[in-house]
Backbone:
């Protein structure tokens, strides 16, 4: 049994080494501020390669992992925390690594009965030279989040030359999927003791272009409608598919599933599962929690109370 919340020393990990560093700093600041006054001590840690040494010296009771992207979200930091035997928030090593690999996670989700996009992994040079599938399609790095490095190729567009450029830093294999027209949806799931609980469905409309990094995190970058105005069967299916995905991936704590809904053909497709959703002022998960009556401070507290370290 863990000590009472108001006696705990919580280290909040933020920043980190990935392309999502600035988002993580924003998430981390918000979570650390929310914990002030709820726990005995909050230490803000800009996580670097010396993280193990820093945490060994700090000796926190719990780590709140507010890192996003490579290293912080892909199982690496989770492995450090398990080696140090420190309880931490969000998913464990396997679920974190799996969710960051789009190709492998799609295979697991498909086997569990979740509807996912077609397409697959292709050599980036081939993708830059010619259309590897018929447009419209989407090009994504296989192991990045927050729509970093995502390109939408429409009919009539040339192949995406930048993917083959020497400046490309997201790996030699890229995910290419058919573009699914329709609504952008998101569902947050809390991994409660009684089972995963989906909160609600948000319909996201970018103010310009598609739902890229800027649309996700810039003030006014997108409009959120919650609950989403959907046919009842689609709304319920999004909730159930999110819970199924949370379980199939082995997630714990908070996860968020992102969907596209083709409202012309009535097809709902899960694009990916985020094991460490953003906690910034414009983030979807805190907004959905507030909708169901869980204030930001309450959500952050719940995440600390849910923290664990598998033995």
Residues:
């Amino acid at each position: 049994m863990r000590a009472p919340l108001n006696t705990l020393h919580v280290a909040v990990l933020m920043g980190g080494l990935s392309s999502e560093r600035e988002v993580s700093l924003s998430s981390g600041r918000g979570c650390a501020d929310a914990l002030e006054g709820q726990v005995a001590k909050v230490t803000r840690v800009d996580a670097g390669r010396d993280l193990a040494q820093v945490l060994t010296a700090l000796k926190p009771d719990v780590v709140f992992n507010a890192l996003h992207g490579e290293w912080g979200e892909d199982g690496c930091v989770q492995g450090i925390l398990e080696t140090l035997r420190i309880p931490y928030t969000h998913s464990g090593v396997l679920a974190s690594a799996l969710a960051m690999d789009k190709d492998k996670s799609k295979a697991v989700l498909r086997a569990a009965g979740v509807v996912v996009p077609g397409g697959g992994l292709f050599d980036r040079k081939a993708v830059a030279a010619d259309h590897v599938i018929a447009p419209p399609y989407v090009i994504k790095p296989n192991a990045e989040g927050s729509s970093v490095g995502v390109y939408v190729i429409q009919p009539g567009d040339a192949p995406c030359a930048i993917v083959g450029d020497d400046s490309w830093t997201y790996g030699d294999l890229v995910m290419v999927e058919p573009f699914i027209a329709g609504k952008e949806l998101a569902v947050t799931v809390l991994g409660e003791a009684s089972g995963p609980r989906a909160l609600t469905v948000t319909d996201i409309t970018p103010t310009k272009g598609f739902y890229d990094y800027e649309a996700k995190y810039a003030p006014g970058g997108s409009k959120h409608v919650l609950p989403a105005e959907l046919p009842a069967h689609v709304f319920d299916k999004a909730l159930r598919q999110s819970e199924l995905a949370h379980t199939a991936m082995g997630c714990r704590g908070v996860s968020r599933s992102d969907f596209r809904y083709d409202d012309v053909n009535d097809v709902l497709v899960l694009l990916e599962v985020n094991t460490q959703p953003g906690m910034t002022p414009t983030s979807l998960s805190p907004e959905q929690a507030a909708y169901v009556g869980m204030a930001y401070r309450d959500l952050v507290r719940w995440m600390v109370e849910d923290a664990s370290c598998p033995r």
